[in-house]
Amino acid sequence: MAMASGHDTAPLRDSLLATLARELDRQGVNRVDVAALADAVLIAIETPMPPADEGKRPEDLNATNDD
Questions:
Q1: Burial class for 6, CB neighbours closer than 10 Å (0-12, 13-18, 19+)
Q2: Is the four-CA dihedral 44, 40, 8, 26 of positive or negative sign?
Q3: Of 8, 42, 45, 50, which has the maximum CB count within 10 A?
Q4: From CA 50, how far away is CA 67, in angstroms rounded?
């Protein structure tokens, strides 16, 4: 898998695989596709975040503006 920047992600993926496998083993988690999890992390890293919504946050709502 290569990131959009053209960098080879194999070393990063290998490190992710080892780290995720070690942590899942430490927590006693079984039957996890660690390779798929590492790929998902890489996709999340290379995918730009969408712009923040410009609506009101829940804590900014009150009876007069909650619609």
A1: exposed
A2: positive
A3: 42
A4: 24
d(CA 25, CA 40): 19
pLDDT tens, 26-57? 999 999 999 999 999 999 998 887 777 677 77
> Phi and psi of 8, rounded to 5°?
-75, 120
Are 9 and 42 within 8 A, CB to CB? Answer: yes
The b/e string for 30-57 (b: 16+ C-beta within 10 A; e otherwise) is eeeebeeebbebbeeeeeeeeeeeeeee
What is the rounded CA–CA span in Å between residue 23 and residue 40? Answer: 16
Its pTM stands at 0.62
